[in-house]
């Protein structure tokens, strides 16, 4: 990415209120997405990928959340310090978001029409009639058949896949410059998953928007994204272009994730896993956060937190022993 | 929909029969004798016995109950033993008082209770939340007779703004005096209900505000006001309607204490008078009418559910 990125997250630290004070949910996170690019963010549950994504539009509950450090640069603005009114113009207008669970993300007591027309009227000031016409077009665009009749339905009459299509229609209504998709296919079954991803890809091309795709599925990333950020325990542990990451994973955690994807060409009797689980955010670990689960951990890994180092060609990893050894073990 | 309402009303018939039988049995379990009350303290036993026979109270209880039901089947609620008027006319005379008080009280309760509940939920764990919950706690805990007496001392005796007691009918006395005679009891009555409604609205809103679709609304760039009012409150409305129905039921039954303190000739006072005098037909009749009113309110609440939540359907 030579030119200026569309959006860049810099040194973001988000804290949640816990029983014993504020706890870092993500710490010092950096990533950037270029215009028209698709960035994948991967990690297991609790890695902080969704927390980072929700922070971009400041969608965390303000009472229990603190943005302790960092900036979210979007053009010449910092979304973290933007006044509420101007942030609202960005939300849904320039940056839109879809969520993991389409079953609960739509308002059950409002019609589909109401919910799609809302951003159109809010950001583009369309009249009710014009917004309705546009909403029907959008439903057509996300391939909901019989759109002019479906539009007056309530969400409970739609299947999960259809609801996610409606969510996508709402998100792309104002032709955003960036779409943040937080595990958009996790709650859907496999055949629907690929349809939704295909739809997202088409819309991305058509609108020319950037996409940040949050997922725990490396297969989805390989198919969809150009660059990847791998997160672990609230930190970025590796970031690289998709081919580089799959060919030459630098961090042992990334490598574990790639190995854990079952290969269809081989007879697999036991799925490969990474032993252990992600540490609790309130637990203090002096050294590398992955070291308790890492087979290659050496003394220095336990002593001081590793920094993210460039291993060349924009491939960054937070594993000094590996980088010193030249990458692949 | 129409079928569902008809079915609900039919289902209420056994409930109403049960209400009638139970109130009949309860009244006869109480010690005391209407004949003695009517005859007066100095009456001879023979006179009391004669009155008892005239009223049919010498018959076995099951026969009294049966004849009451037979009359009811012909639409006759009977006459009061002590008031010298029929049960229906006694109720009709006092109903406007109770309905006026109920309407005014509801008009105070609904906007205040709902607003306070929403504010408390939105600003949860802040001083606003704590303040609202404190008011609500006082409202539901402080006995209404005490508040009523304090209120009379302040607003009627010291300030002289409103009369301390009595009722001015809307049609004969005009809206001004009518309002003046009811505003104080209505406010005293509302204190409890505002507390009750605010607490229920708050808990319903707390549930709703944590839902994913609220986050969706914010992600669309919708204002906080619309997010809470349209996306949030519309979903909490089912709970609010339920509580509204309960409050209305309580109000229709008449507030015994508040009507007593402010000397309002409403239904609540009528029932108390009836119980004091062992006026069996009056108590039976009013109980049955109350039962019917509760059934109607509940059916109305059920119908409102379908308007408020598209997922609710009766068919």
TrEMBL record, chain A:
<keyword id="KW-1003">Cell membrane</keyword>
<dbReference type="GO" id="GO:0005886">
    <property type="term" value="C:plasma membrane"/>
</dbReference>
<dbReference type="InterPro" id="IPR017871">
    <property type="entry name" value="ABC_transporter-like_CS"/>
</dbReference>
<dbReference type="GO" id="GO:0016887">
    <property type="term" value="F:ATP hydrolysis activity"/>
</dbReference>
<keyword id="KW-0813">Transport</keyword>
<feature type="domain" description="ABC transporter">
    <location>
        <begin position="7"/>
        <end position="258"/>
    </location>
</feature>
<dbReference type="Pfam" id="PF08352">
    <property type="entry name" value="oligo_HPY"/>
</dbReference>
<comment type="similarity">
    <text>Belongs to the ABC transporter superfamily.</text>
</comment>
<dbReference type="InterPro" id="IPR027417">
    <property type="entry name" value="P-loop_NTPase"/>
</dbReference>
<dbReference type="GO" id="GO:0005524">
    <property type="term" value="F:ATP binding"/>
</dbReference>
<dbReference type="InterPro" id="IPR050388">
    <property type="entry name" value="ABC_Ni/Peptide_Import"/>
</dbReference>
<keyword id="KW-0547">Nucleotide-binding</keyword>
<protein>
    <submittedName>
        <fullName>Peptide ABC transporter ATP-binding protein</fullName>
    </submittedName>
</protein>
<dbReference type="Pfam" id="PF00005">
    <property type="entry name" value="ABC_tran"/>
</dbReference>
<keyword id="KW-0067">ATP-binding</keyword>
<comment type="function">
    <text>Involved in beta-(1--&gt;2)glucan export. Transmembrane domains (TMD) form a pore in the inner membrane and the ATP-binding domain (NBD) is responsible for energy generation.</text>
</comment>
<dbReference type="GO" id="GO:0055085">
    <property type="term" value="P:transmembrane transport"/>
</dbReference>
<dbReference type="InterPro" id="IPR003439">
    <property type="entry name" value="ABC_transporter-like_ATP-bd"/>
</dbReference>
<keyword id="KW-0472">Membrane</keyword>
<dbReference type="InterPro" id="IPR003593">
    <property type="entry name" value="AAA+_ATPase"/>
</dbReference>
<dbReference type="GO" id="GO:0015833">
    <property type="term" value="P:peptide transport"/>
</dbReference>
<dbReference type="InterPro" id="IPR013563">
    <property type="entry name" value="Oligopep_ABC_C"/>
</dbReference>
TrEMBL record, chain B:
<dbReference type="Pfam" id="PF00528">
    <property type="entry name" value="BPD_transp_1"/>
</dbReference>
<protein>
    <submittedName>
        <fullName>Peptide ABC transporter</fullName>
    </submittedName>
</protein>
<keyword id="KW-0472">Membrane</keyword>
<dbReference type="InterPro" id="IPR000515">
    <property type="entry name" value="MetI-like"/>
</dbReference>
<keyword id="KW-0812">Transmembrane</keyword>
<keyword id="KW-1003">Cell membrane</keyword>
<dbReference type="InterPro" id="IPR035906">
    <property type="entry name" value="MetI-like_sf"/>
</dbReference>
<dbReference type="GO" id="GO:0005886">
    <property type="term" value="C:plasma membrane"/>
</dbReference>
<keyword id="KW-0813">Transport</keyword>
<dbReference type="GO" id="GO:0071916">
    <property type="term" value="F:dipeptide transmembrane transporter activity"/>
</dbReference>
<feature type="domain" description="ABC transmembrane type-1">
    <location>
        <begin position="95"/>
        <end position="305"/>
    </location>
</feature>
<feature type="transmembrane region" description="Helical">
    <location>
        <begin position="178"/>
        <end position="198"/>
    </location>
</feature>
<feature type="transmembrane region" description="Helical">
    <location>
        <begin position="282"/>
        <end position="308"/>
    </location>
</feature>
<dbReference type="InterPro" id="IPR045621">
    <property type="entry name" value="BPD_transp_1_N"/>
</dbReference>
<comment type="similarity">
    <text>Belongs to the binding-protein-dependent transport system permease family.</text>
</comment>
<feature type="transmembrane region" description="Helical">
    <location>
        <begin position="135"/>
        <end position="158"/>
    </location>
</feature>
<feature type="transmembrane region" description="Helical">
    <location>
        <begin position="236"/>
        <end position="262"/>
    </location>
</feature>
<dbReference type="Pfam" id="PF19300">
    <property type="entry name" value="BPD_transp_1_N"/>
</dbReference>
<keyword id="KW-1133">Transmembrane helix</keyword>
<feature type="transmembrane region" description="Helical">
    <location>
        <begin position="101"/>
        <end position="123"/>
    </location>
</feature>
């Amino acid at each position: 990415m030579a030119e200026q990125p569309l959006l860049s997250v810099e040194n973001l630290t988000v804290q949640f209120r816990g029983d014993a004070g504020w706890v870092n949910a993500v710490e010092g996170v950096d990533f950037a997405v270029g215009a028209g690019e698709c960035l994948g963010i991967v990690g297991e549950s609790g890695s902080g990928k969704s927390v980072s994504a929700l922070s971009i539009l400041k969608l965390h509950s303000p009472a229990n959340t603190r943005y302790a450090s960092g900036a979210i640069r979007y053009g010449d603005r910092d979304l973290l310090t933007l006044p509420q009114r101007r942030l609202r113009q960005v939300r849904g207008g320039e940056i839109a978001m879809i969520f993991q669970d389409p079953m609960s993300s739509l308002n059950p007591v409002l019609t589909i029409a109401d919910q799609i027309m809302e951003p159109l009227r809010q950001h583009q000031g369309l009249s009710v009639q014009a917004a309705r016409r546009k909403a029907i077009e959008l439903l057509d665009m996300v391939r909901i058949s019989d759109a002019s009749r479906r539009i007056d339905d309530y969400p409970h009459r739609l299947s999960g896949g259809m609801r996610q299509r409606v969510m996508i229609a709402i998100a792309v209504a104002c032709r955003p410059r960036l779409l943040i998709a937080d595990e958009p296919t996790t709650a859907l079954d496999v055949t629907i998953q690929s349809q939704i991803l295909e739809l997202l890809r088409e819309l991305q091309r058509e609108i020319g928007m950037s996409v940040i795709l949050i997922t725990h599925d490396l297969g989805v990333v390989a198919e969809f994204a150009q660059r990847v950020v791998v997160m672990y325990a609230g930190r970025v542990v590796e970031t690289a272009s998709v081919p580089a990451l799959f060919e030459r994973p630098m961090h042992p955690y990334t490598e574990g994730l790639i190995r854990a994807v079952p290969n269809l060409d081989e007879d697999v009797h036991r799925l490969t896993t990474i032993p252990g689980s992600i540490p609790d955010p309130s637990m203090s670990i002096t050294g590398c956060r992955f070291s308790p689960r890492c087979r290659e951990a050496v003394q220095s890994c336990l002593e001081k937190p590793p920094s993210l180092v460039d291993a060349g060609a924009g491939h960054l990893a937070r594993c000094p022993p590996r980088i010193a050894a030249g990458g692949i073990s | 929909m129409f079928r569902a309402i008809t079915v609900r009303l039919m289902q209420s018939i056994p409930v109403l029969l049960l209400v009638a039988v139970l109130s009949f049995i309860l009244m006869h379990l109480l010690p005391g004798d209407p004949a003695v009350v009517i005859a007066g303290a100095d009456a001879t036993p023979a006179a009391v016995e004669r009155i008892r026979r005239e009223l049919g109270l010498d018959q076995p209880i099951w026969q009294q109950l049966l004849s009451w039901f037979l009359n009811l089947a012909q639409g006759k609620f009977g006459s009061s033993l002590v008031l010298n008027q029929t049960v229906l006319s006694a109720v009709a005379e006092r109903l406007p008082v109770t309905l006026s008080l109920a309407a005014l009280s509801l008009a105070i309760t609904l906007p205040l209770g709902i607003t306070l509940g929403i504010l408390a939920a939105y600003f949860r764990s802040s001083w606003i939340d704590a303040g609202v919950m404190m008011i609500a706690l006082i409202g539901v805990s402080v006995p209404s007779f005490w508040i009523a007496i304090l209120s009379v001392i302040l607003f009627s005796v010291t300030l002289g703004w409103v009369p301390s007691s009595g009722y001015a009918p809307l049609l004969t006395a005009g809206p001004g005096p009518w309002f003046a005679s009811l505003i104080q009891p209505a406010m005293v009555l509302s204190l409890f209900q505002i507390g009750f409604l605010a607490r229920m609205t708050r808990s319903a809103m707390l549930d709703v505000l944590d839902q994913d679709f609220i986050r969706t609304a914010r992600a669309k760039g919708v204002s906080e006001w619309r997010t809470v009012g349209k996306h949030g409150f519309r979903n909490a409305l089912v709970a609010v309607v339920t509580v509204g129905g309960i409050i209305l039921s309580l109000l229709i039954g008449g507030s015994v204490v508040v009507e007593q303190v402010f000397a309002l000739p409403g239904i609540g006072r009528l029932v108390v008078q009836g119980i004091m005098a062992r006026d069996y037909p009056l108590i039976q009749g009013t109980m049955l009418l109350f039962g019917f009113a509760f059934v109607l309110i509940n059916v109305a609440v059920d119908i409102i559910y379908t308007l408020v939540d598209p997922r609710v359907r009766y068919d």
